[in-house]
Amino acid sequence: AQSVTQPDIHITVSEGASLELRCNYSYGATPYLFWYVQSPGQGLQLLLKYFSGDTLVQGIKGFEAEFKRSQSSFNLRKPSVHWSDAAEYFCAVGARDAGKSTFGDGTTLTVKP
Amino acid sequence: GAGVSQTPSNKVTEKGKYVELRCDPISGHTALYWYRQSLGQGPEFLIYFQGTGAADDSGLPNDRFFAVRPEGSVSTLKIQRTERGDSAVYLCASSPERGGPRPGELFFGEGSRLTVL
User: Do B42 and A100 touch (CB under 8 A)?
Assistant: First the structure.
């Protein structure tokens, strides 16, 4: 069965600092991986996705993620965090059509001024 | 509007009552998904439609839950004999046709928050 673990429930960083959110997955085949962001009062929005090819993927809002098959990880990074990045972040694994994606329980990001 | 629309945004009901939650997907999206998000957890898959038919309903927790999409656009999630444990945010998402230019991307609505007293 597929599963996703986001080890950090809550992370606090200072504005301008770098960010890394961890994601580990378990999946029987080649995984399709996603990161979503959920801001208060808004729906989940896709930040980036990995299907194949280059293991470093770029997303919106300056985010990137690196797929490491040997570590079963897909960590999200941003070099300089902005106050508007404060939100909840979800990693997901699933089929190419994302129909039955399995989500982690999320990491809440707080940004200190 | 351009996005996925869900109504109502909030629903408070009493235990044992019947509830309907509506989802209006992005125009032209053939795939529609329902997820449920409980407090402190990630979204949990419930059911997936491709067109009018349920392609995968393996996530529905029991037979009190049912969803329809009669014309391949709007979908309704129906919950009978609601229980307190059904309280959650019910999320709807749509996706372009499988294999299209942006496969795998889910476009989510803002959700319907259901509270069962």
Answer: no
